[in-house]
Amino acid sequence: MTGADKGAVVRATLLATLAAGTLDIGAAILTNLQVPAQVVLQSVAGGWLGAAAYHGGWPTAWLGLVSHYAIMLTIATIYMVVAARMPALRRWWIGAGVVFGVAVWLVMSFVVVPLSASPLTGPPDLLAALKPLAVHILAVGLPIAWIARRMLGQA
What is the pTM of this model? Predict the structure, then answer.
């Protein structure tokens, strides 16, 4: 990649982080209206602090929000670096975004969360997995793939 290409990748990554991070945490809050938004954010901090995150008030909620965007920065960076090198991901962005959203959900659900201190468990069955899977496709995979296509070129 040239210097200009690297700049485009950085800008696309930052925009994708902001967009997908906001859509994803917004969806988490909206699909869990039975608990306050603070608790949703604390559940992210639970990856660091375990169940103690729920007793830390807004400081642990802010830790959860910062952690969420840091994770999304990693996710967006991976996609943008690969998409910059593989024009097919930009050309067929819808399919790539769906596959990427599924992959992100699988890694988060079956690798990241189980290896963290989080007291949360994975979905008990396929039906319970459909909502978070759809959120990861619609709020993470597709927006990141669309931003890659728009900012890195259609290939």
Answer: 0.93
